[in-house]
Design brief:
12% strand, alpha/beta, 307 residues, 13 helices
Length: 307
Amino acid sequence: MVTSRAGVLWILHTVVQGLACSLTDQNVTSVTPIVLWHGMGDCCCNPFSMGSITKYLEKKIPGVYVHSLMIGDNVVQDTENGFFLNINTQIELACQKIQADPNLQDGYHAVGFSQGGLFFRGLAQRCPQPRIKNLVSIGGPQQGVYGLPKCLGENHLICDYARRLLNYGAYIGWIQRLLVQAQYWHDPLAEQEYADNSLFLADINNQGSVKNLTYKENLEKLDNLVLVKFSKDTVVDPKGSEWFGWFSSSSPSSMVPLQQTPLYQEDWLGLKVLDKLEKLHLMSVDGDHLQLDQESLDHIIETYLQV
């Protein structure tokens, strides 16, 4: 059969187009999806916070799939649950949502903002499948808080109510059960009371005498753990908690860095292992809580999310 020159050129054009489309599809599908978890007083889909972050990620990483977690049936519940739904329950719900999302089954990057950064770390320890590749905690109080000096978000009445309850008695049973922030309240002057009564943080930080080795094993599976601290933070108190720093056991009025805490030295969570493997990254941002400048955000995206 004789094929015309035009016919041959058309066939070549079709083959080249097919290869180009195939390569494009491969590039899109190879982009690791991203899951976001908002902070206190915020919700999954606020156009001025998580919505804006989602759009920026989609612009910076063509083809990326972004899932912003909604804990509840609507944005009102999502916001309220950030104050009043047991953190352990929130992590269970988040795990179910992530496991049910077909776009996340090959693994994902996790980005948590404020308390969402702490919750995501808890999820990494309790919900290892699908796997978190890089976990970025932006202003997350990893060692808890010993103060709630300033509230973010639109609902300051709820936040003021939370502050009054914490001041009344964070480790009283009904307050622990009612209030999310009480569950990561960490009193350096009452370490034993904290270890005995904290419904979340003491467990997730392996504070008890019996250590949960699964927590350590699961956290060590991360490719990278990125902890972002804000140098002028007026929300997380103490701000050193964002890097796992805490008060000295010998002098509760002074802070010590992560490497001088028993949590690191005895490696309760695998942070020492991650550090030795250069998978633990401490990043400082010059600003108040969650005031992430574009240069810092772009660095996070290009280094840890665009891979």
